[in-house]
Design brief:
The protein is of the alpha/beta class and about 325 residues long. α2 packs antiparallel against α10. The chain contains 14 helices and 11 strands. The N and C termini lie far apart (about 90 Å). The strands form 2 sheets. The chain has a 6-stranded mixed sheet with strand order 7-6-8-5-9-11, sandwiched between helices. Strands 2-1-3-10-4 form a 5-stranded mixed sheet, sandwiched between helices.
Length: about 325
Amino acid sequence: MQFALKKVLTCALLAFGASLAAHAQTVIKFSHVVAQDTPKGKAAEFFAKKADELTKGKVKVEVYANSALYKDKEEMEALQLGSVQMLAPSLAKFGPLGVKEFEVFDLPFIFDNRDELHKITAGPVGAKLFKKLEARGITGLAYWDNGFKVFSANKPLHTVADYKGLKYRIQSSKVLEEEIRALGGIPQVIAFGETYQALQTGVVDGTENPPSNFYTQKMHEVQKHVSMTNHGYLGYAVIVNKKFWDGLPADVRGQLEDALRQATAYANQIAQDENDRAMELVKASGKTTIYTPTAEERTALKKALVPVHDKMSSRIGKEIIEDVYKATGFNPAKL
C-alpha cells in the first residue's frame, strides 16, 4: 500500500514537472536604440507579435526601444554577456568588434539599387559576413533596410564640383570620411541627435541620410536642397546571443526563424514606403528643393566616389569587395 502510494506520488510529481516544462515561457529581450514608430521599431514589434503567434506563446519577445535598457555604446557588450538576447544595430557597429568586413556596406555606389543590395543581404555573401560574428559569441539572423542615402546642403548639388569645400556631417566611419574627401568636402563626425543643431548653426553645411531620417529629424527645415543621389546604404543586422540561440529547442528556433523572415520582408517594405513618403512630405513643405541627378551627373558622381572602394580595400578586405562585385555584376573598370 505504502509503495503504491509512493509510486502514485512520484508519477504525479513527474507529470507536474512535465506540465511546467511544457508551459515554460522563454523570454527574449530585444533592445534597440531608435523610436518605436520608426521602420526598425515597427519591425521589432511585428517580430514580437509573430514570435508569440508561431510559438503559441512559448516565446515572449520584450522589445525595448529608445535605448531603454542600454545606451548605444553599451548594447553590444550586453548582448555578448547575455544581459539581452537580441539587438538590431547599424552595420557600422561591427567594425569596433574587429569585423571590419561589414564596412563594405558603407562604400559609395557599391549597390545600384535594392535588387543588387538584397542579392547580398539575402544571399551567400551576407551569410559569409554573419559567420564572422560567431567567434564573438554572436549569431546573425537577418538584415533590415533603412534605405539609400541622399545628399543635402544649402546650395544646389548637381555636379561633383558643387560638393567641394562643404563641411559634411557623417556618422563615425573611416569609409565615409574617405567618401567626403573624394568629393573635395570636409567630413565631420557628429552624433545623429545633434545633427539638426549642427546644420542650423552652420557647424556643418550638409549631410547624408535616408529620406525618412532626413524628414523625421526635420532637417528639411535647415537644408534648402536635396540631391537624390542614392549613393550609399544604411541598414541594420538583427543579431542574437549565440549561446542562447543554440540552446533553444530546434522546433522553437525554426518558428522564430519563420517569424523573422516575415518581419524582415515587412521591415524592408516599410522602410521603402516611408522613404518614399518622406520625400513627398519634404516636397509638400516647400522648404527644400529636391533634385534628381541626370544619368550623366550620376555617372560623374560614381566616377568620383568608386575609387574609395580600392582605397579602403586594405581596411575592409579586398576579398569581400570582390565577392560583392561578383554577386551584383558591378565592374568599376566600365565606368
